[in-house]
């Protein structure tokens, strides 16, 4: 096992060693860690629904009625009434014929991609897509091409030279998780139609945030009828856990019979499904949640523009401050931590070398006081 110890030493020397914080209370704008309260700007709980009283009540009611565990995969005996209800709720929310739920978003991406394409096919991916998309593409066995971030000319050129492939799949995040920018979805759809390629989108960071009804970036661009494969998570704006894919009935039935992460794992606890249903209903019925989030985003970004910080332009609640060097990013993060603010450093391999950063995320439940406190501390970081 010496090679493991040696590699750990290399990771530590490179400033890439990661350690866990133990959160002792609930997930919100303020977190309890080792008996101290920290102001958090690193959560994907964008709308604060992880602590919403209606979500908590839904969980309690579900546990009382259905117990906790499911005891089997959904194809054996783990498919309970709340799983069916959740899939129906997602389908109505996304405006699609059917949906399938996975235990995590990671599993949803892997299972879907390598079910749709295999050896002899082509899968194409944006360079900055989430790791679960990259892994799904690699595991599929299909020929794998990567285009530079949001480079539509390169995407077009790849497809122009790929007429030999019977099946072609383009996969993209709609909101890129480390930069906070949005995929040029109308152009991707146009190019896909030109070369008869399928389009699959990952709405992990778009659902609940974008679109008139909070359905995501697909709705934002009015492309619901043109994007046939919509993947997303229930662990971010929805405030729960799990992944899903929405599309037509044939696609979903196909995945139920082909996607190994769905077929060979125990189903989500029914109480988790209840939390997800409650979260989606709150998003649908309370646009004020989304309005508060966008107001906070605009306020913080306007104030950050006045500081001498290398803020990466963002179109979402994800606001990255580029540091560059991994060790320096860790040092800045530790400095913030000492000041009572939690923003972990994001380093390779999550981001490219020499692009380490502080990845801030805004929540609808942050107050102006919270943001002013953050800004006060960041002003001292300018000279760090």
From TrEMBL:
The cofactors named for this UniProt entry are: pyridoxal 5'-phosphate
Q: Does the keyword Transferase apply?
A: yes
Q: What are the protein's UniProt keywords?
A: Biotin biosynthesis, Pyridoxal phosphate, Transferase
Q: Which reaction does it catalyse?
A: 6-carboxyhexanoyl-[ACP] + L-alanine + H(+) = (8S)-8-amino-7-oxononanoate + holo-[ACP] + CO2
Query: Where does this protein come from, organism-wise?
Result: Candidatus Scalindua arabica
Q: Which residues carry this modification: N6-(pyridoxal phosphate)lysine?
A: 236
Looking at the record, the residues that make up the Aminotransferase class I/classII large domain are 38-378
Under which name does UniProt file this protein?
A: 8-amino-7-ketopelargonate synthase
Name the protein family.
Belongs to the class-II pyridoxal-phosphate-dependent aminotransferase family. BioF subfamily.
Quaternary assembly: Homodimer.
In the UniProt record, does the keyword Aminoacyl-tRNA synthetase occur?
A: no
Q: Name one GO molecular function term.
A: pyridoxal phosphate binding
Q: In which pathway does it act?
A: Cofactor biosynthesis; biotin biosynthesis
Q: Which domain of life is it from?
A: Bacteria
* Role: Catalyzes the decarboxylative condensation of pimeloyl-[acyl-carrier protein] and L-alanine to produce 8-amino-7-oxononanoate (AON), [acyl-carrier protein], and carbon dioxide.
């Amino acid at each position: 096992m010496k090679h493991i110890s040696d590699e750990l030493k290399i990771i530590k020397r490179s400033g890439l060693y990661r350690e866990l914080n133990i959160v002792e209370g609930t997930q919100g704008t303020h977190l309890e860690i080792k008996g101290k309260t920290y102001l958090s700007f690193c959560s994907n709980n964008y709308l604060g629904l992880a602590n919403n009283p209606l979500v908590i009540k839904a969980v309690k009611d579900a546990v009382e009625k259905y117990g906790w565990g499911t005891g089997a995969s959904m194809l054996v005996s783990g498919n309970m009434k709340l799983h069916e209800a959740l899939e129906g709720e997602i389908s109505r929310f996304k405006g699609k014929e059917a949906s399938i739920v996975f235990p995590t978003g990671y599993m949803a991406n892997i299972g879907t991609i390598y079910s749709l394409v295999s050896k002899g096919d082509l899968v194409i991916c944006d360079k900055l897509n989430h790791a679960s998309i990259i892994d799904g593409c690699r595991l599929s066995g299909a020929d794998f091409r990567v285009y530079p971030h949001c480079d539509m000319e390169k995407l077009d050129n790849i497809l122009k030279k790929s007429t030999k492939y019977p099946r072609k799949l383009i996969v993209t995040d709609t909101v890129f998780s480390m930069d906070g920018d949005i995929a040029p979805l109308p152009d991707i759809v146009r190019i896909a139609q030109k070369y008869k390629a399928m389009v699959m989108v990952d709405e992990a960071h778009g659902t609940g945030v974008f679109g008139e009804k909070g359905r995501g970036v697909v709705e934002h661009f009015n492309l619901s009828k043109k994007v046939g494969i919509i993947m997303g998570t229930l662990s971010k704006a929805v405030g729960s856990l799990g992944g899903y894919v929405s599309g037509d009935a044939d696609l979903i039935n196909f995945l139920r019979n082909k996607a190994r992460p769905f077929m060979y794992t125990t189903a989500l606890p029914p109480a988790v499904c209840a939390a997800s249903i409650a979260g989606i209903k709150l998003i649908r019925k309370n646009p004020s949640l989304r309005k508060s989030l966008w107001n906070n985003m605009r306020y913080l970004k306007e104030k950050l523009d006045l500081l001498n910080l290398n803020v990466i332009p963002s179109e979402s609640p994800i606001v990255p401050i580029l540091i560059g060097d991994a060790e320096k990013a860790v040092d800045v993060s530790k400095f913030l931590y000492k000041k009572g603010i939690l923003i972990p450093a994001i380093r390779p391999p999550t981001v490219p070398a020499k692009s380490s950063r502080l990845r801030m995320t805004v929540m609808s439940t942050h107050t102006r006081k919270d943001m002013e406190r953050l800004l006060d501390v960041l002003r001292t970081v300018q000279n760090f």
